[in-house]
Amino acid sequence: MNEWNRMLAWAVALSLAWAGPAMGQDLDVSKADHDRAAAAIRAAAPRAAKDPTRPVYHFRPPAQWMNDICGAIFHKGAYHIFYQLNPYGDGWGADGSCWAHARTKDLATWEHLPIALMPMTRRGERRCNSGSVTRNGDGTPMLFYTFVPKSRQATRLGKREQWAAVAMDDELLRWRRVKGPLMAAGVGGVPAGVPAGWSDPFIFTAAGRTFVTFKACGGLVCEAQNTALTEWKYVGRMAGVSGECPNFFTLGDTWVLLRSTYPPSYRIGRFDPKAIAFIEDKRAGGTLDYAYGPKRPGPWHRGFYGTNVLFDARGRCVLLAWVSGFKTGRGWNGCMSLPRIITLDKNSRLIQTPAPELAKLRHKPVTAENVSVTDGSTFIPGAAGDTIEVVAELAGGSAKAFGLKLRCSDDAGRALVIRHDGGKLTVAGTVVPAALVGKDRRLTLRVFLDKSVVEVFVNGGRHTVTRVNYPGLADLKVAVFAEGGTATLTSMTLWQMKPIW
Q: Is the pLDDT of residue 105 over 90?
């Protein structure tokens, strides 16, 4: 089934998913709301499909604006993601943004599912902000999100509220909102003066207790008072929480805090549930992805942000994020990063590797070995494309700078350049402090290029950088280059990548 037919099936499923009381009591969400969202996406899809820069093996909606990964869970053999979607336009929409839903069984091919949460417009809900997914005491999945009021004055007064919904089937297609709000300013010990921007609830457990923390409120923590997770109480504040979309979880015995800062960052330490304290290991932590950040002079550059994690049946921690920074006015905007498996090395450094299941998308490999180049660029025969994966090892030799050029023009003058100058790596203008390894000054790269998106994993996943890039549509070649001496492309394999639809 091609993507267009999948999109039509998605629209039908969206309408069928609304079933009045079956969706839950007191929802204040009508079938008309669902139908209007589906119609807007259906209308935008043809224009989105015509854009030659739109990714084909990164997950994204059929059309319109995609935002944060709101939640993720492995359930009954499938990986489910929920993401913030503006169904009414390809720009960030304050009104009407909802929680969309998709799933995969192999972390490679994806299926669009009906929207999980629409704003309760009759209650004055402007949009459904980000959050997380967990299981209650019965093992039933629950969505936790932030209710943003339509009244801007109410928002300024800190009147955002924290709501939840419970799954009504094992496919996670139907959700019943819990009568709420579950947490609000001045309720259950939450300070009445909680900042207006508090949002993005992330649920975590420790010592048999269930907690939640948020963005934009100084690490405020609440604790569930029952196993149904419908009663909550403020219990303290936790240091280290900053930025947006905090994710707090354990890898082995170590606590990891992910933060959507500029650029996204992580912290390592331990959590004391009695003191409600995160005790950070000051020797560890660092940059999660060299994505968002200031580019001076000029605008901010964007990329990997708005993360969420899940643990699958194999115990792997899968990291997902929103990728942004695309041009507007094309009927779509935003995609999800490729799934990454995250681990800690012996120095408590976060290691990120692409999910091995992505190899399912590979075909038509091209290989090269021991290609030396001196003060110039050398094209790799047969290596070209705009939807490719590249695994390469380079030796710097005597060169002052060296690297790869992807999406290269015929004269090698235009390209997406990955360049190491002996001290730092630069990817399409983004600086990454990745060191060379060994006497031969080795650099290993794993690069996923998907139309306008590039994800680069450096030296086995010690560093990553995600960028949105717009080379010339006809610029497709791949070259190795050296400046001020000789460098060698020790080995390289390039695969074409299949669409995920």
A: yes
